[in-house]
Amino acid sequence: MNTENRFSAEQFLTSRRSVRQYQKGLVLSDAELNEILELASRAPSSWNLQHWRYLVVREQANKEKLLKIAFGQQQVADAAAVIIVLGDLEANKVTSKVYEKAAPEIRDLMVKQVDGAYANNPGLARDEAIRNASLAAMQLMLAAKAKGYDTVPMGGYNKDALISEFQIPDRYVPVVMIPIGKAEKEGRATDRLPLEYQVIHERF
């Protein structure tokens, strides 16, 4: 194992902070945004269905609308962009697309398997949408950090107002809102519970 790379990865992971004060007027270019989203989309997902969708908000007028929806949390108006990560409740509908390059028998098998799972478990669609979109959200924040940008995950917003204002179809469920930009004030370090509070070995 390359020890230098291992320690740089550890330092990278521990250096991420949730930033709530951003430099105003910063522009996030299409190229930079796409690089971050491409990296985020390398996150794992069940059946490789890639249950996430990204609603990107960069226009100031729309960020001001988000400000009201987010109960006045100023970071959504000041950040260069706000990414609203959505979970796809009908991800099974893209199975054929995901496996279009596979052999026909493999593609047919996967479509049957996925559709069967979704049909036989009413709660599966929502669970998978939120679970897999959350994986992409975390990867998005790490990708932004790797590109020199700061983020903060937000769950404090009016979901119904968000859906109404931005005309989000019923197919998608809002999972998390992530402002991206450059810190005006660095996020503070936070403590973590000792591992003995977090880890259960083998069984309870």
UniProtKB/TrEMBL annotation:
Example GO molecular function: oxidoreductase activity
InterPro entries hit by this protein: Nitroreductase (IPR029479), Nitroreductase-like (IPR000415)
Domain Nitroreductase stretches: 14-182
Keywords annotated in UniProt: Oxidoreductase
Listed Gene3D superfamilies: NADH Oxidase
Domain of life: Bacteria
Pfam family, one: Nitroreductase
Family affiliation: Belongs to the nitroreductase family.
Protein known as: Nitroreductase family protein
The organism of origin for this protein: Paenibacillus validus
